[in-house]
Amino acid sequence: MSTAFTVPDLGDGASEGRLVALEVENGETVAEDTLVAEVETDKSIVEVTAPEAITIVEIVAEEGEDVEVGETLFTYESADPSDIGPETNAEGSGPEQPAEGTGSGEETSDDSAGVDRQPTASASERTVRPVGEDVATDVPSPGNVEGVPERTDVLIIGAGPGGYVAAIRAGQLGLDVTLVEDDAVGGTCLNYGCIPSKALIHGADIAYEAANAEHLGVSADPTVDIDQLTGWKDDVVEQLTGGVEQLCNAQGVTVVDGFAEFVNNRRAKITTDEGETAIDFGNAIVATGSRPIEIPDFPFDSEYVLNSRDALALDERPDSLVVIGAGYIGMELSTVFQKLGTDVTVVEMFDDVLSGYDDDVSRLVRERAEDFGIDFRFGEMANRWEETDDGIVVYTEDEDGNRHSLEAEKVFVVGGREPVTDTANLAAGGVELDDDGFVKTDAQGRTTCERIFAIGDVVGEPMLAHKASREGEVAAEAIAGEPSVLDYQAMPAVVFTDPEVATVGMSEDQARDAGYYPVVGRMPLASNGRALTLGDAEGFVRIVADSRTEIVLGAQIVGPNASEMIAEVALAIEMDARLSDIAETVHTHPTLSEAVMEAAANARGEAIHTAN
After folding, report:
1. Mean pLDDT, range 409-420, rounded to an integer
2. What CATH number labels 132-291+416-486?
3. Which fold is adopted by the domain 3-130?
4. DSSP result, 342-383
5. What is the dihedral of CA 301, 302, 305, 310, to 10 degrees?
6. What digits encode the pLDDT tens for the residues 338-397?
7. Given this model, what pLDDT does residue 609 score?
8. How far is CA 17 from CA 12, 39, 452, 460, in A?
9. What does the CA dihedral 180, 186, 189, 190 come to, rounded to 10 degrees?
10. Distance (Å, rounded) from C-alpha 336 to C-alpha 414?
11. Can you list the pairs that 577-586 forms with residues at least 24 positions away whose Cβ atoms lie under 8 Å?
12. Which residues pair with 504 in a beta bridge?
């Protein structure tokens, strides 16, 4: 005969609460002290555990409904503890280690119910966790703000390229999804970063090429209407954000314009223009992204000090600009403004651009930038600025202590980016950070709280939109029970400078450090017919492989459309392809992609158009 498992004494005088979680399923066998349910009252969350090894017969209650003390949650039968495998234990069935059992195990007959009824547990035999722990404000009840559901299968905080992709994928998998965004759907990348910057890069490239094509017999003196160029950029962004919203709607995703923070690992507080409410969730995904780092004495609260978002929103071209930082964002936008006619000076504390890239890569980008007219101040650190009648002056100091001053109309500060971990009250959800301030996750994006995942910039380098998107897919699939994990080995990265830089996998040194015996194949674009017809033959393709197996390990590409060509090598790495797979694949002629084929052949000593 089965036994009824009932709602225990909830303490604090509470006679009822909301069943926020049922951690068991019909037919499941769990060990003694395993977390089986969570009931929330106005003052606490009661974690209810199994009184002995039990097998669930029938679930009676449903998550999200109100239950009273003594009400049956499910029926069960006693199980033999020896039949339970080592993977089934009190820690393995729930997000947190439960406390003592929920009852004495004594039974009394209840003929009208057809089951034996177990007395409920006393207050000393349950786990009580305060509602709103680590939250200073009172927590509203779910369902009191229109447009915000009381409960959702998956709550996603942040609608950037990680969050919205996770939402769409979870919707495709049949999950009920609520996506909360406090700024703009599409996040930084779509609204203030990747997309608008590439739109401006395209406009600047057209203007520059038109004005510098005399060697082709083409002469022109183009004028650039910055306001119109910015308007076109904004139209592109609007079209894409509208598309994202339509895709979310098509998958039944509820998009909430508001702010979300965890109350505990089952509930979040939602703040919108209509007021405050709460939402209960089965799982959550944190996709809060990153923000620009402010450097000392250069806060982003002046019309003269710009971050990347400010720089992309200018409706007038500054006549002069000091850029602090020669990383990928600094170099991309320095090139844009220089091509548009701005006098650009870049201040960099290191001795070259794109720190972290191989010297031959950095050199090509720097030399091209110098050809455009960009002035570099390497080995200098900006320490303060002040306003003048004509704009600003930026003061720098070199390694020898010598001080310098640079006059400009504005200063663009690119000191890197930091994860946004202070807005969602992660501690209340049981989410921990690593020593660098990023959210700790496993290969599926799961945090230190089993039901909460994190993706994108908030989990660490590389801070790439496509990385966030793939992590979003993996997290959604993991929540849906699919065996999905992310392998970062084939994660490409691109710098949209002129020339473009694209990398994937390992460099030669990294391969050697990893224990491989690398072989390297190289193809200069000066020997590529398509690059010559484009008038842009500076650069190269370099492929790294294991010399013993010829398995492709990585590549570095510098040149026009490197961002497109790198995908072939990324696919090769993902598939454990060999050099011969690339070298023996017929590539269209004349194309830039032939250089990839030639580099692979060069690594095998079989290149046709370059010396081995």
Report:
1. 93
2. 3.50.50.60
3. OB fold (Dihydrolipoamide Acetyltransferase, E2P) (2.40.50)
4. -EEEEEESSSSSSTTS-HHHHHHHHHHHHHHT-EEEETEEEE
5. 70
6. 999 999 999 999 999 999 899 999 999 999 999 999 999 999 999 999 999 889 999 999
7. 87
8. 12, 6, 23, 39
9. -160
10. 15
11. 577/551, 577/552, 578/545, 578/549, 578/550, 578/551, 578/552, 579/521, 579/543, 579/545, 579/550, 579/552, 579/603, 579/604, 580/550, 580/604, 581/552, 582/543, 582/552
12. 555
Which uninterrupted H or E stretch holds 17?
A: strand 16-22
Helices 594-603 and 562-574, axial angle in degrees (round to 10): 50
Provide the residue count of the chain.
612
In the 8-state DSSP scheme, what is residue 337?
H
Alpha carbon of residue 10 to chain centroid: 40
Q: Residue 333: which H helix or E strand, with range?
A: helix 328-339
Q: Look at residue 151 and give its three-state secondary structure.
A: strand
Q: CA angle, 90 as apex, 88 and 94 as ends, to 5°? A: 90
Strand partners, 530: none
Rounded Cα distance between 571 and 311, Å, is: 35
User: Could you tell me which residues come within 8 angstroms of residue 80 by beta carbon, excluding any fewer than 6 positions away?
Assistant: 53
Residues of the chain with CATH 3.50.50.60: 132-291+416-486, 305-415
| Catalytic-labelled residue, pool 202, 404, 587, 589 | 589
CATH architecture of 305-415: 3-Layer(bba) Sandwich (3.50)
The answer to whether the beta carbons of residues 591 and 528 sit under 8 Å apart is no
The single residue listed with the structure tokens 């203007």 is: 207
C-beta separation of 353 from 333 below 8 A: no
First to last CA, the chain: 80
Helices 465-479 and 163-172, axial angle in degrees (round to 10): 30
- Please tell me the pTM assigned to this model: 0.78
Residue type, 98: P
CB 35 within 8 A of CB 265: no
Which residue ranges does the chain devote to CATH 2.40.50.100?
3-130
Structure tokens at 107: 């039974």
E runs forming strands in 469-569: 493-495, 500-505, 518-524, 540-546, 552-559
Q: Where in the chain is the domain with CATH 3.30.390.30?
A: 493-603
Torsion from C-alpha of 525, 529, 533, 535, nearest 10 degrees:
20
Q: Is pLDDT at 93 greater than 60 in this prediction?
A: no
Q: How confident is the model at residue 49 (pLDDT cuts 50, 70, 90)?
A: confident
Residue type, 461: E
Architecture of the domain delimited by 493-603? 2-Layer Sandwich (3.30)
Q: Is 589 in the active site?
A: yes
Query: For residue 12, what pLDDT is reported?
Result: 67
Sign, CA dihedral 320-325-326-327, equals negative
Q: Are 258 and 146 in contact (CB under 8 A)?
A: no
Contact 12, 41 (CB under 8 A): yes
Q: What gap in Å lies between CA 266 and CA 283, rounded to an integer? A: 8
Residue type for position 457: D
